[in-house]
Amino acid sequence: MLVSMDLTCAGTIGYLCLHDFVIPSQEKVASFYEASSCRFANLALGCEPKPSEQKVTTDLQQEALLGRQFARLVASIEGNGLKPEKIEVGNY
User: Fold this and answer.
1) pLDDT in tens, 3-55
2) pLDDT for 23
3) Domain of life, per the record (predicted)?
4) Is residue 70 over pLDDT 70?
5) 7 contacts 22 by C-beta, under 8 angstroms
6) 85 lies in a domain?
7) Does residue 55 lie within any of the structural domains?
8) Which residues of 36-67 are buried (b: 16+ CB within 10 A; e: fewer)?
9) Is residue 1 part of a domain?
10) Which of 37, 54, 59, 79 is surrounded by the most beta carbons within 10 Å?
11) In a domain, 90, yes or no
């Protein structure tokens, strides 16, 4: 069984497209596509400029990075007197 979740964010001057951002297909490499200052191509067949692929590499797996970040946030709250962020729950 293949599980995948993609995210596409589009705005007035560009877009960002993330593939497999929840359960990555590769453990230590993540890629995304981005384009800025976009406009429709001739006859509205695609966009210009073409999106470019960006790759982010890491020495640790996604789960390990998540644990490291969580521990860093907890330590900054306990050791530096910072407060946790408040999350507003609204009607979506």
Assistant:
1) 677 888 888 778 888 877 666 667 778 788 888 877 776 766 767 777 888 88
2) 66
3) Eukaryota
4) yes
5) no
6) no
7) yes
8) eebeeeeeeeeeeeebeeeeeeeeeebeeeee
9) no
10) 54
11) no
